[in-house]
Amino acid sequence: MSARMLRWALFACATLSVAAAHAGADDAPAPVWLRAPSARGPIAGTVAIDDRRLWWGIDGTLPLGLGPPAARAPLGRARVLGLGLSIAGDTRADAGALRYTALLDRRGPRSGEWLGISSAGSDAGTQLHLGTGFWSAFRPVQVEAGVVTSLIPTQSQEVQHWGFFQNLRDTLRWRDTTTFRAVDRTVLHTTAQSAIRWQHGRVEVSAIAGVLLRGIHAPQRWAQATVDVRATPGVLLMAAFGQRPGSSLAFDPSAGPRTMLGVRVAPWATRDTPVARVATRLRGWSARAQVEGRTVVRVRCDHASRVELTGDFTDWAPIPLTAAGGGWWGSELPIAPGLHQVQVRIDGGAWLAPPGLPTTQGDFAGTAGVLLVE
Description:
Blueprint: H1 3-20, E1 43-49, E2 54-64, H2 69-72, E3 80-90, E4 99-107, E5 111-121, E6 126-138, E7 141-168, E8 171-200, E9 203-213, E10 220-232, E11 235-242, H3 246-249, E12 260-265, H4 274-279, E13 282-289, E14 294-301, E15 307-311, E16 319-320, E17 322-325, E18 328-334, E19 338-346, E20 359-361, E21 367-373
Antiparallel strand pairs: 1-2, 1-12, 2-3, 3-4, 4-5, 5-6, 6-7, 7-8, 8-9, 9-10, 10-11, 11-12, 13-14, 14-18, 15-16, 15-19, 17-18, 19-21, 20-21
């Protein structure tokens, strides 16, 4: 694929994203294919078609851990661990050619890493892929990089030359003989890839490119541009332009090897995310300066059994608030004059900015409120 074609593809994707950006918002970090189960439910299915065949995939994630993330680290600094499992194939492949993948996904609010193993059948035998990568979110942009090492079975012919003396009419003559022997080998392929993604509202545009190293062969460069539009909480429309090698597809069940159109369905996705549910319970906020550099902070919450506050003035350590009646929770804290970042948490949920305060991107995770103490 030429560079000019790729530029036109990126331009078309960007144009489509601007046209659809008003549709809504889904401010979820991490690549789309790693967002189970936080943004699309525990399982999803993908169907896509290109100029040759129909592709399909089923994938999901099992959360791992010894307890709720809120109990293990303050301020959303906990990194959630999940085990991703997927199966993928196409309409022209038999059962032995299906691709099975297991991926260990460790993610935080703004970055994450993954490590996986994948196997797929072919005419020569079973191909094994080992991969690792990381991603980081700089909203609304995400960057990702990874390396996949593939063990590809091949069969080559080994030539053997040998000879013998043959007695012809009382004369010894040397006769050359050549034989061929099939030799099974395993060759090592390495794929290095990187991606950049831009998310706005229901649309995510990405460009992914890489290079495939195959021993004595010349490096194979490849690139693909994609756009994903979330039609509903459970339906994701996908389009891709360009190509990707099989090693790059091993750990992305929603991707296709060539220019394609597809749809991803998550039957248990919900519009009402946990963060949105908690946000609707925050009803009020007040901060009143006292003498000797102390400030009384109060938060009004509906149906809360535990409310905590954190900020740069607590070194981002959670501080429990005391119930004061009427849904109000508060505490008197030493806060120096100036601008500060503050977040609140209800019943061990997500850390959010207090209502009514200007917001900024928090030092650690999520959005924080900007508190002015005079």
